[in-house]
Amino acid sequence: MNKDMMLGSEAVALGVKLARPKVISAYPITPQTHIIETISEMVDNGELDASFIRVESELSAISAAMGASQAGVRAFTATSSHGLALMHEVLHWIVGARLPVVLVNANRAIGSPWNIWTDQTDSMSQRDLGWLQVYCETAQEALDTVLQAFYVAEKVLLPIMVMIDGFILSHTLEEVVIPEQEQADEFLPPYKPEYYLDVENPMSFGNPAKGDVFYLFRKDIQRSMEASFGVIGEAHEKFKKVFGRDYGLYEYYRLSDADIVFVIAGALTGTVRVAVDRLRDSGVKAGLLKIRYFRPFPKDEIRELLKGKSSVIVLNRSLSFGSSGQITQEVMGALYYEKEKPKIYDYILSLGGKEVFVDDIVNIAENLGTLSSSNILWRE
Length: 380
Known about the structure:
Blueprint: E1 2-7, H1 8-19, E2 23-26, H2 33-44, E3 51-54, H3 58-70, E4 75-79, H4 81-86, H5 88-96, E5 102-107, H6 121-124, E6 132-135, H7 139-156, E7 160-165, E8 173-178, H8 181-187, H9 211-243, E9 250-253, E10 260-264, H10 269-281, E11 286-291, E12 293-295, H11 299-305, E13 311-316, H12 326-335, E14 343-348, H13 358-366, E15 376-378
Parallel strand pairs: 2-3, 2-4, 4-5, 5-7, 6-7, 10-11, 10-13, 13-14, 14-15
Antiparallel strand pairs: 1-8, 6-12, 9-11
Helix pairs in contact: 1-2, 1-7, 3-5, 7-9, 8-9, 10-13, 11-12
């Protein structure tokens, strides 16, 4: 088993290489640039047999990925923040055409004011498009999730967005187990789509549709999103068999007897995990629930995991202005019909890269009695 120290962005690039895409199209934007720089070097030196398309904007990058996928090949792109926002229109088209494009987004705040540091506003603003969404905690998880994403996307014919926190994960060195190409090939077979653009067998993607037909297309997307739970489970089982590493829709830590549960997604999970241990040492029964798949959202499983808990503190790195944190909305929706449910605290933990320390998480739990569960809570 080979291991190496690498940046989270380099781990993503290695995952892409192992997946053997045939087209990579991308445009640089901090903090995602390392990903495509590394992939371009892999293509240039012959490590990856693929076409690397240099484009003039993120809109062109996602359009090229869409065209490549329509032509029947595995396609990848990456972006961040304003780049993801510029892709917005085409993200809709990819879903409607049922194209299994994989996109990695390095989470970064969106201006104004100008900010290059991390929060999850960029990806959360795209949550309702029909893309599956996965949030990663570590470089290893990011590498492995890229491979899993291609597997799932090509089975359910829906695109997947894989999130890594900008700088916290993209620019931090971590030890990573390096999979062998033979293992990756065993897990992820060559992409052989049933439908693709072929001059010998003409067909259309994204053609006009009247309301009744359009409605049925959208209904089918929802059915596929719901069916993806089974495909994700299948992917995780196969991944565990091939690589020995286990993943799920979510992860939890010291949850079974917890009274207070923190819910979070992304790289700050590690900070919260340490805080849970410190709270336990002081006699507070704290636990952690980490959301990996935000779309589809595993509401049934989360409902069971949070049953009997007294308080749930949802830690958000984004906010739907005028409403609440998006993760909080999903947790509250999952628990809505429960007769007995915990108090849910909607906490905006960090926006624009505001630093978060273990003491901050501990203080939230220790001051819980003074907090209101009916309002948005802001960390000062």
